[in-house]
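A quick aside before the break. I want you to see a complete sequence-to-structure record at least once, exactly as it would be stored in a machine-readable document. Don't worry about memorizing anything.
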Amino acid sequence: MHIQDSHWTSASTVTPTSVPGGANGRGTSDSSRSAPLRVDAQRNLEHVLRAAREVFGELGYGAPMEDVARRARVGVGTVYRRFPSKDVLVRRIAEEETARLTDQARTALGQEDEPWSALSRFLRTSVASGAGRLLPPQVLRVGAAGAHDEARVPQQRAAVDGAEPRHADQRTAPAEVLPVDDAGAAALLDVVGRLVDRAREAGELRVDVTVADVLLVIATAAPALPDAAQQAAASARLLDILLEGLRSRPA
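That is the input. The structure line, written in tokens, reads:
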């Protein structure tokens, strides 16, 4: 049974949650961020966004809108009424997850005095949240110096450069994935860069590790497994191994 979508109205309304990074006008082409919604329409929107995070996290941004609608238990028309194209929905999810990672990095930077503790806290929190599976590919290609690093793009690399994606788990990503909001991506790279710089200057991080490497760890240490307990255990174990690889060693 589908949850019925509702028409817009000014009565009995609630305002959707605003999305970080949307103030500059980018990524806000869907009207859901500015107009009030009926309570049931707001509930449908939340179902769609939750389903999109789950589906894209498991299958990559190449997953069809029909899969999102099925997971949300609404008709695909309901999804398209809220998001007129898949690109708009992909942008929304990517921006929200980028903002969430930025908040996690700022928290670690502000609450941990020890540089290595701050970096490792950020990595553990981010991996546990699963946000790494939803990072936009172009953010993962940006290194500490701002250059693209094609060799370090993990599972969700989009085929924007004409090449077919090749993934160990055969996840797919579409050519039409839109860039994340520039300001949001810049904020993430800036705060993660500060975590990296502090740990490197303290002699606790390998000198060759870049921001791109840290984001790659977040993306690859969050596997999508059907069992939640198994996924948490696998993520924790993999992250322990990756953190050991990031640490500097006495000469």
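Two observations worth writing down. The chain has nine helices and two strands. The beta strands are 13-14, 37-38. We'll return to this after the break.
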